[in-house]
Amino acid sequence: MNMLRLIRANGCVPLVPLLLWNIFFTSQLPSEISSGFDEGIPTWILLGESVFRIAIFALPIFVRINISTPVGRRGLVVFLAGTVVYFAAWIPLMVAPD
Q1: For the chain, which residues make up each domain, given as ranges?
Q2: What's the Rg (C-alpha) of the chain?
Q3: CB 38 within 8 A of CB 46
Q4: C-beta atoms surrounding 73 within 10 Å
Q5: Following CA atoms 7, 10, 61, 33 in sequence, which dihedral angle do they give, to the nearest 10 degrees?
Q6: Contacts of 36 (CB under 8 A, 6+ apart)
Q7: Distance between CA atoms of 52 and 95, rounded to whole angstroms?
Q8: Per-residue model confidence (pLDDT) at position 35
């Protein structure tokens, strides 16, 4: 039971729906966004972007979620609002790519 509580409190858990969304719907994006997007960008910039992306996605591992406090509940509301905006931003690109 203690292990289940630790997993639920892990900061990576809320990212799972976002990652699944990316996995399932990336193929629905216009080709201009998905393929060849990084053409012409210097390699050192792409490398730096990849390093920072990995670091940003790794940071939630060290964050503990506690929605029993007022700050935690506000954080959850902000996260959920941001998630809705993130999902909504994809819809026009998938429905009307041109």
Answers
A1: 2-28+41-95
A2: 17
A3: yes
A4: 12
A5: 100
A6: none
A7: 31
A8: 61
